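Today's session is about reading a structure prediction critically. Students often jump straight to the picture, but the first step is always the sequence itself: look for stretches that repeat, for charged clusters, for runs of hydrophobic residues. Only then move on to the predicted structure, which in these notes is written as discrete structure tokens rather than atom positions. Here is the chain we will use throughout the hour.
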Amino acid sequence: MARRYALVKLISEKKLTDQQFHETLDYTIKRYFGEVGFSRIDPRIMEFDSDSWTAIVSCERSAIPELAAALSLITKHAEVPFVILVLRVSGTIKNIRKRLK
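Below is the predicted structure for this chain, in token form.
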């Protein structure tokens, strides 16, 4: 299946680890879209950079609106508030990586 890649920026007072981001993303998608929705979206964190506070998240091509909605619903992890902004969506990871430089 074709995938889409989203470049996201995290804004927070404290740094998150890739594991914390992964857990929060999975929990939020399962909470709002259920197990079937999670399976259909099929989110994967391709890269996570805690220094620049950016991540590349991939999902199924048709599920990019649901992924963007789930990312916007995330507001905190372990009582640490943060915001996630979707900066760009692309069909190739190469184009997303260009934006990181």
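Discussion point for the tutorial: The mean pLDDT is 90.
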